[in-house]
């Protein structure tokens, strides 16, 4: 089977690594000349709106998927006229715009922070009366890893805040007093079959995910699956979807969805019976979904800016490093490590050992 992937970053790279044993071949459409997924397939170097390149891609593959939300929804809609595209264009349209996303949650009775649509500085100042302070102002599109957002803690922070984010359409969200941040990796097949991985506890720093630790028998697992199921069914979704939540007293509040394989699911490569990447491919290819059960205790740490020396990482028991082959740069995700152990004590020791190597290497730990 030939699969087209819009985007050629590390997520495309890991999709190809999971798909090769399934006799899948990949073509990556990406404008970058150094797309890190390119060595694992054919690289069609072109912009995401290049109609000639899109037509070529559609002719040469059996189906198309995408690895991130910056892909224009119009691109997916255009491709879907010639070749099956999963997830569907409507999922991308909703997920790449925070206003559409939060409005969908509200429509499906999924709790969210208080939010308001912001189109000007005057609208921002008026909406603060609804959300209160502190609050978070975010661009409606293209924000990720802490980019495109500003925390407003006092009235003084309001001055110039809208212009400071580029004067583009924004959404204002009330600040959530959460006890934790968790994500659910869900997958839905063409037949409607669904599967869910264990809830993952996530630790962020400066808006960037640093550590993900899946649990077992989380008391909010069933609630998270219920909320995710509502979204999957409403969008007639096919593939992996990540749902990020704030854990609050007595329940969950929806933060955002990602219509793709997700950073907080990287632990599944070594830590689950079937990885999120393989399950995404199974889903979009119409194959049976794989087992999402954990294999012991596991965790995932992101390498930001720099990857520690592989020889040192490989000396840490249970450590499985993943180097993306990307140029090192501050604030950039350039790799990750999965840690897997039989018990929690060994897992904690492994996390601390890898963190120490990151500090010594100058990674943004």
List keywords for this structure.
alpha+beta; Dna Ligase, domain 1; 17 strands; 12 helices; D-amino Acid Aminotransferase, Chain A, domain 1; 365 residues; four-stranded parallel β-sheet; Rossmann fold; nine-stranded antiparallel β-sheet
SSE topology sketch:
Blueprint: E1 2-6, H1 10-19, E2 25-29, E3 42-44, H2 51-60, E4 63-66, H3 73-79, H4 89-95, H5 98-107, E5 115-118, H6 121-131, E6 135-139, E7 149-152, H7 161-164, E8 170-174, E9 180-188, E10 194-196, E11 200-205, E12 208-214, H8 221-234, E13 239-248, E14 251-258, H9 268-271, H10 276-284, E15 297-304, H11 310-313, E16 319-323, E17 333-341, H12 344-361
Parallel strand pairs: 1-2, 1-4, 2-3
Antiparallel strand pairs: 5-8, 6-7, 6-8, 9-10, 9-11, 9-13, 11-12, 12-15, 13-14, 15-17, 16-17
Give a structural overview.
The chain is α+β, with helices and mostly antiparallel strands and 365 residues long. The protein folds into 4 domains: 2-85, Rossmann fold (3-Layer(aba) Sandwich), CATH 3.40.50.20; 89-95 and 177-292, ATP-grasp fold, B domain (D-amino Acid Aminotransferase, Chain A, domain 1, 2-Layer Sandwich), CATH 3.30.470; 114-174, Dna Ligase, domain 1; 296-365, D-amino Acid Aminotransferase, Chain A, domain 1 (2-Layer Sandwich), CATH 3.30.470.20. It contains 12 helices and 17 strands. It has helices at 10-19, 51-60, 73-79, 89-95, 98-107, 121-131, 161-164, 221-234, 268-271, 276-284, 310-313, 344-361; strands at residues 2-6, 25-29, 42-44, 63-66, 115-118, 135-139, 149-152, 170-174, 180-188, 194-196, 200-205, 208-214, 239-248, 251-258, 297-304, 319-323, 333-341. Strands 9, 10, 11, 12, 13, 14, 15, 16 and 17 form a 9-stranded antiparallel beta sheet that branches. It has a 4-stranded parallel beta sheet with strand order 3-2-1-4, sandwiched between helices. Strand 11 (200-205) and strand 12 form a beta hairpin. The longest helix is centred in the C-terminal third of the chain and has 18 residues, at 344-361. The chain is globular, with a radius of gyration of 20 Å. It starts with a strand and ends with a helix. The mean pLDDT is 94.
